[in-house]
Amino acid sequence: MKKREKEIFTNRGITLVALIITIIVLLILAGVSLSFVFNGGILDKAQQAVDKYQNESEKEQDILDKIDKYLENELGGGTGGGTDTPGGPDDTDVPAVDGNGLAKEDTTITTDDPNVQIVIPKGFAPVILQTGRTDSLPGENGAVKEIMPKEDWNSITKEDINKGIVVVDNKITYDNGQTSGTVPDFNEYVWVPITDESKFARNGWNMDTLADVSTSGAFWEETTSKEYRDMVSSVSMNKGFYISRYEASQKDSTTAQSKRGQNPWVNVSQTSAITASSNMKESLNSHLIYGIEWDSVLQWAIDSQAKIGSASGGTKTITEDDVESDSRSWGNYGNSVGGAATNSGSRKPGGTNEYWKVNNIYDLAGNVWEWTQEKYSTGTGRAPRGGYYNRNGDSTPAAYRNVYDESDTYIDVRV
Question: Rounded to whole angstroms, how far apart are CA atoms 373 and 222?
Fold first, then answer.
């Protein structure tokens, strides 16, 4: 019995020792495991995985945002115009343009002055000139260089507008498909801001008396016509209007155009000029210029203190006298002076002399007479404006009104 009990005791002792050792080993392993979990182990690894996932998600969202912005601005989205911060660019409001850089919808650009803005129609775009700016002073190359990048449209200022912003209605190419040539594939226009409706008015320069109705001896306009009322309404709503940058040249037998380097369209009657002007941009209500528009362009030049050539050379600030009485220093006449005298005295293509311009508009003074829609008295007399190359600039200045019959065919067109 004693031997058996001893064996049982011994076996139980061994088993207990083994159990104790096992427990000790398990405690050691548990400690190691807990240390791994809490000190750089599973929890740290899990947290690192979560952080990495979040970082990658943020990167992915950033890429998606950039793709979305690209699609919005380049492939048909975009806000279409205006600016949330007047006078400054806004990345969230870049105008939408097509592949040629032309506006995809009518776009209004405002400035720090709420009364000064420019409306860029669908299919048009402002441009940079060869000067590297939007303006060109007398004597500087005023030819178009390139479409203005859409990111810069909202940076157009009141000062830019008052120096004559040029817009085009097509990409910058020429008849030979290159970036140089003889006939541009785009028309050019200049925005005339009307900051105050009182500035949109006919002026009594160089004529008899003005009247709104038919009166013997008076120049007047058909103010009751739908076209006239629509024009006045548009100017009021848009705070301005466009004028062709050049005296009109001939696109075809019934359509005018405004392109640099082209001969003015002469030998055209006033009635035909009305048709040719309306055909130019029928969808935008283009029309032969009214006397009130002509006068407002000249008044804007004075109010904006535009630069013109001077009689002694160089430039000067335009005055009412330069418009009303003596335009020899900035027009093509038989007695032009200063820089305007070069190549003067004969009919020339638009843009020939960089001194024959004001606020980027060429040949308002001299070169050829230009038909308007003003009427004279009760008959068929109509008023061409602006003087002629073989006349004197101090007798037929920019504001001068002449009288010819509407059927006469030796006057030009201004749209």
Answer: 8
